[in-house]
Backbone:
C-alpha cells in the first residue's frame, strides 16, 4: 500500500514501545533492513500458521461436533445446548482488542504461541474434569467461556503479524491460505472427530485436538523461533496490557472515519453468521437427516471451502496486480462472501433432500471464504500500523453478535420447530454488513496524518 514515504506520513498508531518498535526503528536508522519475510520464510510461516489456524478450529469445533452426544450424555435440551455453544463467544469477545494491541507491541507470533499452549492444555483436561463435578452444565459453560478467552487473541494477533511481515501485493493470498485452516480444521475434526466419536466416545475428540495443538506449539518454538524471540520481558508485556496515552492510538481520528465503521460492521456481521453456521450445522443435519453419516456433512462443506478460499486469494491479488482498484476488488469479494453465500443458506432451509442440502451447505460455507479477500484484509489496507487492535475491535463486535445469534438460533429452533428461521437470520445479518461495506467501504490508508494515495 502506498501511503507516501515522506516524513510527513507518520502512522498515527506507530508510537510503540518494546522489542517490536525497537526492531523497526533499528531498521529505519540502518536504512537497509526489510521488515517483510523473505519468500522462503513466508512459505514456511504460511504453512505453520495454516496448521495453527487448523488446530484452533479443531479445538473450537469439538463441542459443536459432540453437541448431540453431550446433550444425550448430560440430558440437555436445545436451550441448554445453546447456552453451552454460545458461552464460547462471551469469552471470545473479551480478549480481541487487548490481544491485538499486545501483538502490535510485542509481536503477534508470541501471543499466538502463548494462547495456543493454554487452549491446547484446556482441551486435553476438559473430559477429565467432567468426572470430578456433578454440575456439568455449569462446568462446560465455564470451560467454553475460558476457551473463548484464550482463542480470542488469535486472529487479531494474526492480522498484526501479517500486516507487518507480508507485502500488500501478497497479502490477500497469504491471508486466504492461512484462513483455509479454519475450514481445514473443521474438516479434520468433522471427519476424524466423527469417527472417534463413534468408536471411542466424545472424550477422545477432546484428547485428539488438544494433544495436536501442544505438538504444534512445540514444533513452532523449536524450529521457527530463537531463544530471544521466545523471551518476553515483563515490562514490555505490561506496557502491551496497558492501552494508555503512551501508545498514542488515535481513537477519535480513526473512529470518525466511515470506512473504519464500514469494515467493523461488515466484520461483525460475517463473523457472527459464520459462528452460527459453525455451531448449528452439525445439529441441523443430524436432526433433519437422522440416517445420514456424520462424516459426510461434517466434512464435505469444509472440504469445498479450502480450494474456494485459495482461489479467492489468488484471484484478488491477480486482479489488483492487473491494475484494478483495491477497494473495487475488496467489495467484489465481499458480495460473493456475504451476498451469494446467503442465497445458498436460504436454499438450505427449504430443501428436504440430503444431497441438495450438502450442495447448498457446501456452496454457502465455501463462498463465505471470499470474505478473507474482502473485509479481512481491508482492515490491513486501512491501518497496517495498528491492524491487530482494529481487527480485535471488529471481532469483538462479531463475537458479541455471535453470542446473540447462536443463542437466538437455538431459541428459534426450540420455539418454532423449524430451521428456516435460522437461515433467514443468517441472511438478514449478512445483508446488513454487506450494505454497510458497499456504501462506505474504502481501501485508503487512514492511520497517517497527511494525504494518502487513493487505491
Residues:
Amino acid at each position: 500500500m502506498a501511503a507516501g514515504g515522506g516524513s510527513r506520513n507518520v502512522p498515527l498508531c506507530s508510537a510503540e514501545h518494546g522489542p517490536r518498535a525497537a526492531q523497526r526503528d533499528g531498521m529505519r536508522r540502518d536504512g537497509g533492513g526489510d521488515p517483510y519475510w523473505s519468500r522462503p520464510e513466508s512459505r514456511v510461516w504460511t504453512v505453520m500458521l495454516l496448521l495453527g489456524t487448523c488446530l484452533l478450529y479443531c479445538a473450537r469445533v469439538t463441542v459443536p461436533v459432540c453437541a448431540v452426544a453431550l446433550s444425550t450424555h448430560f440430558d440437555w435440551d436445545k436451550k441448554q445446548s445453546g447456552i453451552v455453544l454460545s458461552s464460547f463467544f462471551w469469552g471470545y469477545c473479551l480478549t480481541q482488542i487487548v490481544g491485538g494491541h499486545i501483538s502490535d507491541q510485542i509481536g503477534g507470533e508470541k501471543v499466538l504461541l502463548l494462547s495456543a499452549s493454554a487452549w491446547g492444555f484446556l482441551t486435553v483436561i476438559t473430559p477429565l474434569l467432567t468426572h470430578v463435578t456433578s454440575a456439568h452444565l455449569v462446568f462446560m459453560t465455564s470451560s467454553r467461556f475460558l476457551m473463548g478467552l484464550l482463542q480470542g487473541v488469535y486472529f487479531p494477533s494474526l492480522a498484526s503479524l501479517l500486516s507487518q511481515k507480508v507485502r500488500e501485493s501478497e497479502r490477500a493470498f497469504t491471508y486466504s491460505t492461512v484462513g483455509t485452516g479454519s475450514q481445514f480444521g473443521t474438516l479434520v475434526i468433522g471427519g476424524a472427530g466423527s469417527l472417534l466419536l463413534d468408536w471411542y466416545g466424545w472424550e477422545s475428540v477432546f484428547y485428539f485436538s488438544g494433544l495436536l495443538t501442544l505438538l504444534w506449539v512445540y514444533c513452532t518454538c523449536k524450529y521457527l523461533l530463537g531463544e530471544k524471540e521466545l523471551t518476553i520481558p515483563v515490562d514490555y508485556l505490561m506496557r502491551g496490557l496497558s492501552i494508555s496515552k503512551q501508545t498514542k492510538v488515535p481513537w477519535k481520528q480513526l473512529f470518525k472515519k466511515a470506512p473504519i465503521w464500514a469494515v467493523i460492521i461488515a466484520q461483525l456481521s460475517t463473523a457472527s453468521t459464520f459462528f452460527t453456521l459453525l455451531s448449528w450445522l452439525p445439529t441441523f443435519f443430524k436432526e433433519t437427516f437422522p440416517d445420514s453419516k456424520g462424516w459426510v456433512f461434517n466434512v464435505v462443506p469444509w472440504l469445498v471451502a479450502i480450494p474456494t478460499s485459495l482461489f479467492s486469494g489468488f484471484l484478488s491479488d491477480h486482479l489488483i496486480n492487473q491494475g484494478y482498484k483495491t477497494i473495487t476488488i475488496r467489495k467484489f469479494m465481499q458480495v460473493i462472501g456475504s451476498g451469494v453465500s446467503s442465497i445458498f443458506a436460504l436454499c438450505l432451509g427449504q430443501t428436504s433432500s440430503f444431497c441438495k442440502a450438502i450442495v447448498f451447505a457446501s456452496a454457502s460455507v465455501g463462498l463465505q471464504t471470499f470474505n478473507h479477500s474482502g473485509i479481512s484484509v481491508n482492515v490491513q489496507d486501512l491501518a497496517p500500523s495498528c491492524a491487530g487492535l482494529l481487527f480485535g475491535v471488529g471481532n469483538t463486535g462479531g463475537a458479541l453478535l455471535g453470542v446473540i445469534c447462536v443463542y437466538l438460533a437455538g431459541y428459534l429452533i426450540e420455539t418454532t420447530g423449524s430451521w428456516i428461521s435460522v437461515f433467514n437470520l443468517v441472511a438478514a445479518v449478512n445483508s446488513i454488513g454487506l450494505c454497510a461495506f458497499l456504501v462506505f467501504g474504502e481501501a485508503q490508508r487512514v492511520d497517517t496524518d497527511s494525504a494518502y494515495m487513493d487505491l
